[in-house]
## 1
Amino acid sequence: MARRLVVKNKTLMVEGEPNHSLYVIVDGSFRLSKVLEDGRRQVTGFLFRGDFVGVRSTDASAYTAEALEDSSVCFFPHRYLDEIAIDAPGVKDRLIARGQTEYHKAQDHIVLLGKKTAEERVISFIELIGKTIGVDDDGRRTVPLPMPRQDIADYLGLRLETLSRTLAALKQDGRILELARHHVVIEI
Amino acid sequence: MNPLWRKYLDVRAPRYTSYPSALHFDEQATAADYGKRLGEVGLYEPLSLYVHIPFCRQMCWYCGCNMRVENDYGRALRYVRALNNEIGTVGRRLGGAGRPLSVHFGGGTPNFLKVAEIGDILGAIELALGLTDGTRLAIELDPRLIGDGDVERLAALGFNRMSLGVQDFDPGVQAAINRIQSFEMIESAVGDMRRVGVNDVSFDLLYGLPKQTAESFEATLEKTIALSPDRVAVFGYAHLPSQLPRQRLLDETLLPPEETRADLAGLADDMLVAAGYRRVGFDHYAKPDNPLARAELEGRLRRNFQGFTDDLADTTIGFGASAIGFVGGLYAQNAKTLGDYYRCTDRGELATARGLVLSPREVTIGQTIRGLLCRSQADIASLLAALSPTEANAVCARLESLEADGVISWDGDRIALRPEARPLSRVVAMALDPYAPVIKDGAARTLARAL
């Protein structure tokens, strides 16, 4: 196991390029994205502390993982994990079972995109992140939003203006207690 | 034009915006089939959306679209509610899957609706299917219905492609087709579009209209070029009064003869190319820096129900009465009448009335025909492999006579359309189409002239 720092905007994995390590996010956050057939970049998920990525060794990654802030990861070469597996079968699965992987992120995404209103989509997104990296204090949960608003809009299938309007409306009706550029506060 | 090609002037051919053409759709394809395929759309599969607005303020006598003249805006609001229902129904079937790449509003007259209603429809699409800032929004506009500030409001909603139904600038021709719109009106609309930064402005022109002459059409083209649209589509008017009763209003005796039609098409081609437009497909022209021209140059041109397009999505979803979708190898067309359409949408059901499931051989034939129309060449070996021996023989015989007439040339297993024979593209497409003879005998009068 080795530790690595990933500076903001640098990539951990690049779509179409080989990746032979399993990563666990120790600190910071990452954006998962892929380029669609039409050339547009689709944000497919976000990774936070404790999440796993690179679950399968591959010659062509299905997406790009890019640091949203200065972050650090631990990585395990798959070859090394496979060697250990000879003596201790299932070690990889048990390791991964401790956190969320890119496959969970795909599940999250389809659930969010299936929500009927913009409010539901945005508040579910905030709650989802809150469960992973929210900080609770006195019945209030501070949810960091390290990604740009445009990434959230693209991820949720909303236009930036709709996202801004929806956040403002949620603030207005009290479902968001505090709204700042890189965090929101909700009731638990 | 090559004298050997005269005989093709009167040939009637499908437009091949789909294969097989909508004439082959039947009721075997159901809403259940369409719903099932919507459920199989991939999570990030690109989607091309079409929204049909069937209303017009006034009837143009040449029109072949599914439209109705409407004076009561309340009925348009009723339609918008139905559209929003349908969009919600489709969204539930997709369950979050699919990413809209483009939305095209066509008609009828999309700007029969006020901008507020158009915004509502976009909002419904955003919630049901997702809409991001990169989604390309296009709308067809009737210049006579563009109110003060409309263009600016549409641009603010995100519309970055606007298309104007110009048809012809000549007042005599305009009177003969019941569509009177001054040059100044179009000029002002284009000016509005440029001011708000719309850099993809398209004109539709029609040749073969009553009273058109080479002189009058030349003047129309000069005015077109002066306004410098980014694209121009030059369509041949399809006079089919037996199918479209409204075309009987038009004075048939004023229609130009076959030869003149060919001259008008040739004139448009000469003048637009001389003005710096690139030919795109057989009836579109675009400035070299326009995405459509670039798609043509890079071999990415495609054909869908809107004609030639740079849209990359294979999957199309149509909303509104008579709109056609193509999902997972199924063409699905909605009910044509408002009554039938409302009956389905009010119950939260899909409004599919007709359609067609493509067989593997139809997929191959369609690819061959689209290759010919979009890239002026076609792989005949793979086409023949998909056909029965009788059909293959018939296709070869038709290609032989086209080759003898200098329309196509052979290059190994492929045919190439000669550049000057581009106006005959649809005739060659029909030669590749095993269904064509059936069309010729059975339903020839329902088709437009190939030229």
## 2
Amino acid sequence: MAAIIELDQVTKRYTSADVLAAMSLSFEAQQFTSLIGQSGCGKTTLLNIIAGLDQPTSGDVRIGGAWAFSASRGIDLPPHKRNIGYVFQSYALWPHMRVIENVAYPLRVRGVGQDERVKAAQDLLDRLEIGDLGQRFPFELSGGQQQRVAIARALVHRPQVLLLDEPLSNLDVQLRGRARAFIARVHKEFKLTTVLVTHDHGEALSISDRVVLLRAGKIEQDGSARDIYEFPATSYAADFVGGANRLAAKIVTTSNSGAVVELADGSRIAVAPDASLQPGASVYLVVRPHRVSFAPDASSASPSAIVASFKTLSTHYRGEDWEIVGDTPVGELHVVADQPPVTESTFVRIAAADCRCLSL
Amino acid sequence: MNSSVATQDRSAFSSFVAAFWRSKALPGWMFAIGLAAFLLLPVAPIVYQAFLSRPLYDPAAALTLGNFARLLSDADFGLALINTALFAGLATLIAIVLGLAFSLLLERVELPFRRTLRLLVITPLFVSPLIMALAWSVLYSPGGYLAMFLRMNFGFGLPNLNSLGGMGVIAGVVQVPVAYLFLATAASNIPDVFERSARASGAGRFQVVWTIVLPLLRPALISCVLLNVMLVVDLLAVPLIIGEPARVLVLSTFLYTKGAISVQMDYGIIAAAAVIMIAIVQALILLQSRFIGDRRKYVTVGARSSAKTLLRTGWVGWIVSGLIAVYIAITLIVPLVFLILRSFTGILTPLLPIADVLTLENYKTILGTEQYVRSITNSILISSVGGATAVAFTFIAAVFAYRSTPGVRTAIEQVAVIPRAIPGLVVGLGFFYGMILLPGGGYLKQTLLILFIAFLIRNFPSGFGAIAPSFIQVGEELDRAARISGARRWRAIIDITLPLTRGALLSCFVLYFVYFLKEYSSAAFLFGPGSEVIGTTMLQLNFSGFLGSLAALACIELVILLPFAAVILGRR
């Protein structure tokens, strides 16, 4: 597939810090990509650079094969010439224009005649099932309706790229599921190359073909939603995407078949091999909370699983399951289970297959 | 080695320059620098003249400190300095105490007729201090109606208004609306949660004011004191109309009498006095930042302010409202009524029944004299056409400030308030000198254009302040959404920003109209035959002692201002 957006060595520097550090990234046609990361990681800056609302300090940007920005060539295509659809976090619907005028505006500035553009806007509103809202003003709409109008406005001029900046963060929690499904439907129907920025990993995992995790202006991990969750590349990625227990450990031996690591309490376990790890290196043993199980006693310990005593510190009922925080000789552990342990002091079992051994 | 470091430096520098060029901040920075130069325009010739041995048009002029030496040995100047300090001190004290009381009472206590009282308290904003001083003079001065009436019927008069104390009281009353608005705005920015949490912690109604509201208002109070001192130091009308008969000289009258109406002008000494006036204002600003210290202590971001719950009162409220109403009657309404009466009489005195002295003569004089009529049409021209031009200019400044980079925004916001620190008299004087220096200045001098520029510089901080909040409120995303949709930069501004800030632009126009019409102090140095405005004509009529005509002209100004004041007041 052809790359629609290509970023090459894009750096954005403010007086001292690099918001983006020599980032190279490309987005393929019709692909739905989520950019995730903590606030300040550079994800919105990246989106604005694609849109032309922000200029990189150095690097190149190509959209649809054409130059959008190049520091060395002195190219900077202004935003209105980039043919992009952008849904802002606040939706940015113009309060002095009716819905139909908002949606028809991109056609208006492109010189499309009144009748034609109103018809196009109305058709699109109908397609997005908000055809009856055309004559309303933005303040008369609910959050979910505003979002649909903002999406309609971003689509009406048939852009080659759709950019979404935290589109769900302004909605009530109950509405988010529907809005998310709506965005997925729009993507399926219009087949646009889509880039979504969010800090909510759940949102990203559920909707995207591809997830790019950013951290302090660099790419921490880039892969399919499943890859990111199942095979986090770093302990940061594991923790940010879905939450994870990080147990401090040390490599004892390595071989082709795997590595043996030693935990804080001296217990040892054999994990999957990782060529980069040397004996003596400090690592994290990363395990998802729902992969930890309670055990009645210490008898099930083996080279392929560790069992540790567990003293409950706090118990949280979460509706469909329980989260239990407890103290173990290998460190503090979060456990997600269908039932809380019967006694305050018990044992937990962690299978080696559920652990990933990651450098600090 | 060294050369490679140097090349590296140079390439780092050139890439910085290239990035700067691309960042689109350049036009914004150029505008900010241009704006600063424009607003500082009047100061340069004054500072230059202050250090010259002869008038700046004289080629034999040399650099010297002699002007300051002569100024400081001038007994009049020393006296003026002391009087200015006392005058500004008293006026500021009155303005702050009353302004604070009104802001606490009218903004947070459930008083009968609260809305009406609030509007009346700020009404003096629309009345030129020239008119206020005149109205008070007609009623309360030793020769005024009330003073004479009391002396005739009860054997005692009023304390002499034509004194430093009298000047201080009027100036204080003139400044009350400024102090009130300033403090009320600051108080409304204090989030309600702070007070609620104090109440929840066990503080009573008055304890909350004392322990939470006032301490949080401290920076605003200090800024407000400073602002008032600056405005009073710059006030010419009150010292001229109230102080001059008693020969009480202050800085502003010193500058005016020596610089504008004296036959033999001593350029050097006037410029030196103006420089000292600027220095005093700068020192006050410095003092303010020292006093307030770390502003973060007072930052109340985060907590959102909500509609404040008003304190309920019973009969006490009626008494408080009554007292405020009496204050408004004494300071504003009765004096204005007597001013209007004065304009319809040949002489106004309790010795003669008013019915016997009623006449339209004053209005006939004003409307029958070409020069006076011209000053009215000139004023309206500057206020309307000039006001609209000023709005356009201010809008462009706001676009550069709020649709550019954060650096440019900060720069323009800082630059925009420069004229606050330049007394109006100095603006007039500076242009007066500047026109002498400038080739072709003689032609510009005494035109309406130069008056308009002086008025714009004087009032730019207020105009910018009227537009800026709406730009912040409208937010850049709406504009950016239009850019993404395919609109060019200025197309986006015209389609989105302009309609959304329309209300603020209208307010800004009304503000400029009112302020331009009221302006007199900067015009005092700049007008000439053909470019008179109402303010300068009033100064001349006062100088010649034609009080009846002066009252008539003041009433005409009030009538012109009335609809505009109503627009502003109606919006509140």
